[in-house]
């Protein structure tokens, strides 16, 4: 089975001469003391861009797939996909903020600048890639993230979406489609295209903090904001990715979303 780790993670493994990723922990002292030269920084900048492109592609395609699922009445996997779309978008924002994640038994971040290569991320409550990404976003992005300007049911919006994903995927005895549980505003009352348009136009945003709408409003708004960040960075998107997004957009009836993305 072919498995690719992040380009940033791989850069540091190779830089420190680690041939077996499972033994990277043996290089932790070298990682902590590592200093990046100008050439290192330039190479790492390209690796960070690779990861941004990959995470953004995942965020877009995952969300579009979820919209198709919702239209077809599939609420379990659509909720899971929408959460993952947010997770990928947050990873993009963290990269752009100079917080690319490296795992070496403990969690480190790098900006890719010359000098000391990494900083230790200390958070005893954050667990797993998802918890770490949300914790970093809460600590470093809250001042510029409109989605962290309020809470939903007294919970951070990203944790609220994470909880929703865990409910439908792990905590329900039967699939939500068989129990009448629908976390989304009913498409029978407003179709997907109109909902997407409404959430995109919601600059306040109001719907992201209303539990009747939030399950779709939050990922739509997060992706809209992250798309603006990617555009501002000047990172180009591949033709094959745009083609895949166009196909899914036609199936999901989310034409206005695609215009926001590209």
Report the biggest beta sheet as strand number plus sense, adding barrel if it closes.
Answer: 3 strands, antiparallel
Number of helices: 10
- In round numbers, the mean pLDDT is 92
Percent of sequence in beta strands: 5-15%
Return the structural class. mainly alpha
- DSSP summary, beta strand count: 5
Low-confidence stretches: none
What sort of overall outline do the alpha carbons produce when their principal axes are compared? Answer: globular
Question: What percent of residues adopt helix (DSSP H or I)?
Answer: 55-70%
Write the H/E string, N to C. HHEHHEEEEHHHHHH
Can you offer a commentary on this structure?
The chain is mostly helical and about 260 residues long. Helix content is about 55%, strand content about 5%. It is built from 10 helices and 5 strands. It has helices at about 5-15, 30-35, 40-70, 75-95, 130-140, 155-170, 190-200, 215-235, 240-250, 255-260; strands spanning about 35, 100-105, 105-110, 115, 120. The strands form 2 sheets. A 3-stranded antiparallel beta sheet has the order 2-3-5. Strands 1-4 form a two-stranded antiparallel ribbon. The longest helix is centred in the first third of the chain and has 34 residues, at about 40-70.
């Amino acid at each position: 089975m072919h498995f690719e780790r992040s380009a940033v993670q791989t850069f540091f493994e190779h830089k420190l001469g680690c041939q077996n990723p499972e033994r990277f922990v043996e290089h932790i002292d070298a990682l902590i003391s590592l200093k990046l030269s100008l050439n290192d920084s330039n190479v790492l900048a390209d690796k960070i861009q690779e990861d941004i492109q990959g995470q953004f592609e995942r965020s877009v395609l995952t969300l579009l797939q979820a919209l198709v699922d919702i239209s077809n009445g599939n609420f379990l996997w659509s909720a899971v996909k929408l959460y993952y779309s947010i997770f990928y978008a947050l990873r993009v924002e963290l990269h752009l903020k100079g917080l690319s994640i490296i795992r070496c038994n403990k969690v480190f971040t790098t900006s890719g600048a010359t000098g000391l290569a990494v900083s230790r991320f200390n958070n005893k409550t954050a667990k797993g890639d998802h918890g770490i990404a949300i914790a970093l976003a809460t600590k470093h992005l809250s001042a510029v993230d409109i989605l962290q300007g309020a809470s939903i049911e007294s919970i951070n919006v990203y944790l609220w979406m994470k909880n929703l994903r865990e409910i439908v995927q792990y905590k329900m005895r039967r699939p939500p489609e068989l129990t009448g549980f629908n976390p989304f505003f009913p498409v029978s009352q407003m179709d997907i295209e109109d909902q997407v348009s409404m959430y995109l136009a919601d600059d306040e945003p109001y719907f992201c903090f209303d539990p009747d709408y939030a399950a779709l409003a939050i990922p739509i708004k997060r992706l809209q904001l992250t798309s603006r960040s990617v555009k501002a960075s000047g990172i180009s998107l591949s033709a094959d990715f745009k083609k895949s997004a166009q196909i899914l957009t036609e199936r999901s009836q989310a034409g206005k979303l695609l215009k926001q993305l590209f």
